[in-house]
């Protein structure tokens, strides 16, 4: 099992979750974070840290967001040089993106 970052993270990119990860399995893109499923040890420490509940266990992925399991794996490889371990400020407009649906089209790779 692994944890997965879902669509809600796009353009919000809160990084509260990365500091608690004991294996440094978070990778940072321009406007999204991903969890490397090969590195995740299923400790569940990150899930409650996300202020917008954008992290879930792979067996709890909401209907319609199943592609995010594969997307996390793909982007973890693509962003392998962008491991993130320390909290950063969220984007200035993050609050305005919270709860917005259909954000996949805004994902920057």
Structural class: little secondary structure
Largest sheet: 2 strands, antiparallel
Mean pLDDT: 98
Strand order of the largest sheet: 1-4
Distance between the termini: 25 Å
Number of extended strands: 4
Number of domains: 1
CATH fold-level topology:
Alpha-Beta Plaits
Amount of beta strand: 5-15%
Name of the CATH class = Alpha Beta
Q: Can you walk me through this structure?
A:
This protein has 109 residues and is largely without helices or strands. It has a single domain (3-85), classed as Alpha-Beta Plaits (2-Layer Sandwich). Helices cover 15% and strands 11% of the residues. It is built from 2 helices and 4 strands, in the order E-E-E-E-H-H. The chain has helices at 67-78, 94-97, and strands spanning 3-5, 26-28, 33-35, 55-57. The strands form 2 sheets. A two-stranded antiparallel sheet has the order 1-4. The protein has a two-stranded antiparallel sheet with strand order 2-3. A hairpin with a 4-residue loop joins strand 2 and strand 3 (33-35). The longest helix has 12 residues, at 67-78. It is globular and about 30 Å long. The model has no long low-confidence stretch (mean pLDDT 98).
């Amino acid at each position: 099992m692994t944890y997965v970052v879902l669509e809600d993270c796009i353009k919000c990119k809160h990084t509260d979750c990365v500091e608690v990860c004991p294996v440094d399995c978070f990778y940072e893109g321009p406007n999204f974070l991903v969890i490397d499923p090969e590195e995740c040890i299923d400790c569940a420490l990150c899930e409650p840290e996300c202020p917008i509940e954008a992290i879930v266990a792979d067996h709890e992925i909401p209907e319609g967001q199943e592609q995010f399991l594969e997307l996390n794996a793909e982007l973890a490889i693509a962003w392998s040089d962008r491991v993130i371990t320390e909290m950063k400020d969220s984007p200035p407009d993050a609050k305005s993106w919270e709860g917005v649906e259909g954000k996949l089209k805004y994902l920057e790779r």
